From TrEMBL:
Record gene name: potA
Catalytic reaction equation(s): ATP + H2O + polyamine-[polyamine-binding protein]Side 1 = ADP + phosphate + polyamineSide 2 + [polyamine-binding protein]Side 1
Statement: the UniProt record of this protein carries the keyword Translocase: yes
Highest taxon in the source lineage: Bacteria
GO cellular component, one term: ATP-binding cassette (ABC) transporter complex
Subunit structure: The complex is composed of two ATP-binding proteins (PotA), two transmembrane proteins (PotB and PotC) and a solute-binding protein (PotD).
Reported function: Part of the ABC transporter complex PotABCD involved in spermidine/putrescine import. Responsible for energy coupling to the transport system.
InterPro entries the record matches: AAA+_ATPase, ABC_SmlMolc_Importer, ABC_transporter-like_ATP-bd, ABC_transporter-like_CS, Mo/tungstate-bd_C_term_dom, P-loop_NTPase, PotA-like, PotA_ATP-bd
Designated name of the protein: Spermidine/putrescine import ATP-binding protein PotA
One matching Pfam family: TOBE_2
MF terms (GO), sorted A to Z: ABC-type putrescine transporter activity; ATP binding; ATP hydrolysis activity
Top-level taxonomy: Bacteria, Bacillati, Actinomycetota, Actinomycetes, Micrococcales
Protein keywords: ATP-binding, Cell membrane, Membrane, Nucleotide-binding, Translocase, Transport
């Protein structure tokens, strides 16, 4: 953040050209490739991607459990090459909370401060405050096994935060919890982060979790950065085919450009109708890929007027699923392609069409998002 009268403050965590290669007898394996990433002070930042994409390896390099094969990691402007984990101003919360079973909750939380020989009075005060923040003010005397999974997770969090690190690194901390508890803890964790105001770096493979909690996130795939941005930017403007498919549901269509007029390309997507795509880089004859989100498409039984400027394709409803607040349709276009459409049920719960009906799908050209195959 920029302070009046000062230059731009250093990022809390700055990765510059970071690579990690694992060498074994049989092979060398690139887990992280040339990663540039700046995480700002006080951000809730997530590393999101499928299993094996390099999230955990990246987190472990920030913590100092792994050294990068190449590149630099700076914490608040200081180069961390060769600095051991305990000398870095970060703490890590793992998926397995690793609480001491023979100690009470308060003893678990105070353990690190005792070892640092912090004043007894101060320890009591800081542990008390921290247990309040994580919602365990009344449970300091319990033992870990007398607590639920969610409560144990909170103890692990309190223990990591009580040392007042400048950043907290969390490796899939909610993965062991059941769905309901996980959702409740997502809200809690976000509240706690806001309250303590420190940088959180959160590893997850769950896109819903990353979208709900993050100020910003990075999507990784095969050791590479695909895209960085706010949840809104990544969902509304996915840059790559991978991001469009990994975050939410996406309809991906492909076709040759048959014309371009004032920055809008017309593509032949093999369907009856017209698919228009805003483009700043494609010309007639190029083959391009486009993503359209299911909720941007309007489904109707009427053919749009000839002078309608929206994208419009026609097909047959192959499936219709009633979901209470919404309906989803799978529509097979004349051409074979399947598109998913999400229709909100507002005042009426009557669905617009049934299985077998011929329908028209329309959307505004700006909701056709041109994708690239590989990150830039
Ligand atoms: P997950 O969600 O499954 O933990 P991830 O995105 O966190 O996945 P990483 O744990 O960072 O992935 O691993 C990235 C790749 O590096 C994987 O293919 C993994 O097998 C490999 N890898 C990780 N650690 C080592 C190691 N010590 N030696 C060799 N290969 C490793």
């Amino acid at each position: 953040r920029r302070e009046a009268g000062q230059g731009v403050a250093a990022a809390a965590i700055d990765l510059r050209g970071v690579e990690k290669t694992f060498y074994s007898k049989a092979e060398t394996f690139s887990a992280v490739r040339s990663l540039d990433l700046a995480i700002q002070d006080g951000e809730f930042f997530s590393l999101l991607g499928p299993s094996g994409c390099g999230k955990t390896t990246t987190l472990r390099m920030i913590a100092g459990f792994e050294e990068p094969t190449a590149g630099e990691i700076l914490l608040h402007g200081q180069n961390m090459v060769g600095v051991p984990p305990y000398k870095r101003d970060v703490n890590t919360v793992f998926q397995s909370y690793a609480l001491f079973p023979h100690m009470t909750v308060a003893e678990n939380v105070s353990f690190g401060l005792e070892r640092k020989r912090v004043d007894k009075q101060e320890i009591r005060q800081r542990v008390g405050e921290m247990l309040e923040i994580v919602g365990l003010g009344e449970r300091g005397d319990r033992r870990p096994q007398q607590l639920s999974g969610g409560q144990q997770q909170r103890v692990a969090l309190a223990r990591a935060l009580v040392n007042r690190p400048r950043a907290l690194l969390l490796d899939e901390p909610l993965a062991a919890l059941d769905l309901k508890l996980r959702q409740a803890m997502q809200v809690e964790l976000k509240r706690i982060q806001r309250e303590v105001g420190i940088t959180f770096v959160f590893v997850t493979h769950d896109q819903g979790e990353a979208l709900t909690m993050s100020d910003r996130l990075v999507v990784m795939n095969g050791g590479l950065l695909e895209q960085v941005g706010t949840p809104h930017e990544l969902y509304e403007r996915p840059a790559t085919r991978f991001v469009a498919g990994f975050l939410g549901t996406s309809n991906i269509m492909e076709g040759k450009v048959t014309g371009v007029d004032r920055g809008i390309a017309v593509i032949d997507a093999g369907a009856d109708g017209r698919v228009l795509v805003p483009t700043d880089r494609s010309a007639v004859g190029d083959r391009i890929a486009v993503s359209v989100r299911p909720e941007k498409i309007v489904l109707s039984r009427d053919e749009p007027a000839a002078d309608d400027e929206r994208c419009a394709v026609t097909g047959t409803v192959a499936e219709m699923v009633y979901l209470g607040t919404s309906n989803t349709y799978e529509v097979r276009l004349n051409g074979g392609e399947m598109l998913t459409v999400l229709e909100q049920n507002h005042s009426t719960s009557e669905s617009t069409a049934q299985r077998g009906d011929t329908v028209w799908l329309t959307w505004r050209p700006q909701h056709s998002l041109q994708l690239v195959d590989e990150p830039a």
